[in-house]
Structures are given as structure tokens and as C-alpha cells.
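Hi R.,

As promised on Friday, here is the backbone we talked about, encoded as C-alpha cells. Could you run it through your design pipeline when you get a chance and send me back a sequence?
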């Protein structure tokens, strides 16, 4: 069962049929602890539509309106290693090793809707950065009560040169216009995702694959409920919240994104999020 945000309506996918909801607010529709029941109920009362392909091609938007997007850091061993390497010269590597083992996870604010693009939109790299990567991440959708009610795919675009210079530059390495992509849909949570759910990253340059890797979500060091629980400890989210769960894939140190590269991130059961790269001018 999936929910797509379109430019001015909501599309539900249930048992191979599509249902369109007009005049429905995204924020109030998705902020529901029983979202799965609601989708089933609506599908049983509405007639399916036949133009879903055209709507998805021309109207698809990022699945976010009033939700803040947060992110988790150093939740997979590969992220810890990559960050220790990039920050070694600046003496920052110990911080990453310690947070990987600590009880408290690293959580940071990433973006609101205006800095986020959907499937097919352009993500950006900063003018003042010369080492940039996409971070393919499973994203949790929580209701305002903190319950995990869905999942989507995220790209936590990151400047390794800026973060590597000093870990205190993290907000600049992570948050700028076009710094995140989300989509293509919300997979409504009926049960927790299986541990062997795979996240795959493919980067193409001039129609050739220049990087390709995958990881199963059971390689994460933390629990999904644990990450959501820390986020909601002392923050309220009246419209619910989105939380990236961290990357388990980091390209080698000789790789940097270039303008024109196309990034595809697939997660089993959710779909594929594709975005090409522009440089901020
Ligand atoms: O520690 C900095 C950010 C880490 C991150 O974004 C990740 O591990 O995915
Ligand atoms: Mg990340």
C-alpha cells in the first residue's frame, strides 16, 4: 500500500489499483496512527482511476509538506569508516568512532520542504565544495505521536570536503538548497520492514555506471524505533516528521559527484528515486 503526493492531489495505490483524493490536505491525511486502515477503508469506498501513469509522470511531487526532515548519522560501519578517513587530518575521526558506539545516536536537522526535491528533481552540490557524494537512506515517516507509519527513500546529499575540514561544519556540509531528495512515494507501514530489505545506489555519468553498491537494512547498528524515539524525546512535530536513518554506502575516497551525474536509489518494496545533479551557481 503506497501513497504518492501529486501537485494538487493524493494518489493511493492498493492491491494494484490507484485511487485519487482531491481537496485533501497532505499534512492532515498522513498524520494518522492508523494510516494503513485509513487507506484500506478509502480504497473500499472509491472507484479506481485509469490515468495513474500520466499523473505519476506529470504531477509527482516530494512526499513532504509541513514535516521537518531530520537525519541520523554514523549508523552503519561504512559511514563511520568513511568519515574517520575524511576527517583524519583535521583530528575529527574520534568523534565518529565514539558516536557509533554511544547510547545516544547522532541526529541532525536536515531540511524543510523548500530545500527538498522529489523524484526527477535536481539535487545540487555546493559551489564551495569539491568533494561531494549522495547518501542513499531509508527514511521513516512518523505521525505526531512518534509512531512509525511509513517509509520512503532519501538522498542525504553531503559535502565531504566541508565536513572533513571540521565536524562542526556539519550543518553547512548537509543543509543547502537542493540538499535532499525524497520519494517517489510513502510505503505505508503494515509491519516493520524485513531485515534483508536492500538499499541500492547507482550513479551514472554520460550514460555509464560509475558507481554501484547495495546494503541490507539489517546492517544498521541501531533500531528504527530507537532512532524515532530519540528524535521525539524533547521535540514535538505537530505534522509528523521524516527521519533519514543513515547511509551504509559511501563511494571510495577518489569519487566525487559532478554536475550532470544521475543518482538512482532503490529500496525493495518502495521503488526507485532518481535525481540528476546540478551545481549551485
Ligand atoms: O556524521 C555525520 C553525518 C553522517 C550521515 O549523514 C550518515 O551516516 O548518513
Ligand atoms: Mg546521511
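Update: got your reply. Pasting your designed sequence below so it's all in one thread:
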Amino acid at each position: 500500500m503506497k501513497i504518492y503526493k501529486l501537485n494538487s492531489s493524493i494518489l493511493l495505490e492498493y492491491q494494484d489499483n490507484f485511487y485519487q483524493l482531491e481537496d485533501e490536505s497532505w499534512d492532515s491525511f498522513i498524520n494518522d496512527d492508523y494510516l494503513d486502515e485509513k487507506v484500506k477503508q478509502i480504497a473500499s469506498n472509491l472507484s479506481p482511476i485509469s490515468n495513474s501513469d500520466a499523473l505519476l509522470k506529470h504531477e509527482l511531487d516530494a512526499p513532504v509538506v509541513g514535516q521537518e526532515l531530520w537525519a541520523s548519522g554514523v549508523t552503519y560501519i561504512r559511514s563511520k569508516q568513511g568519515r574517520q578517513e575524511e576527517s583524519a587530518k583535521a583530528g575529527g575521526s574520534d568523534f565518529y568512532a565514539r558516536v557509533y558506539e554511544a547510547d545516544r545516536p547522532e541526529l541532525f536537522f536536515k531540511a524543510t520542504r523548500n530545500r527538498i526535491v522529489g523524484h526527477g528533481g535536481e539535487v545540487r552540490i555546493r559551489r564551495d565544495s569539491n568533494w561531494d557524494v549522495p547518501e542513499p537512506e531509508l527514511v521513516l515517516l512518523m505521525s505526531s505521536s512518534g509512531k512509525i507509519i511509513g517509509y520512503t527513500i532519501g538522498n542525504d546529499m553531503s559535502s565531504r570536503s566541508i565536513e572533513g575540514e571540521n565536524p562542526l561544519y556539519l550543518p553547512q556540509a548537509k543543509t543547502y538548497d537542493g540538499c535532499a531528495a525524497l520519494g517517489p512515494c510513502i510505503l505505508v507501514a503494515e509491519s516493520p520492514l524485513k531485515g534483508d530489505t536492500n538499499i541500492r545506489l547507482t550513479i551514472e555519468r554520460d550514460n555509464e555506471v560509475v558507481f554501484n553498491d547495495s546494503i541490507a537494512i539489517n546492517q544498521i547498528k541501531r533500531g528504527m524505533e530507537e532512532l524515532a524515539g530519540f528524535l521525539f524525546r524533547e521535540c514535538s512535530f505537530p505534522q509528523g516528521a521524516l527521519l533519514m536513518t543513515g547511509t551504509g554506502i559511501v563511494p571510495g575516497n577518489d569519487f566525487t559527484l559532478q554536475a550532470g551525474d544521475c543518482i538512482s536509489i532503490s529500496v525493495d518494496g518502495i521503488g526507485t528515486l532518481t535525481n540528476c545533479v546540478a551545481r549551485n551557481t
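One thing I noticed while checking it: The CA atoms of residues 130 and 161 lie 6 Å apart.

Thanks again,
M.
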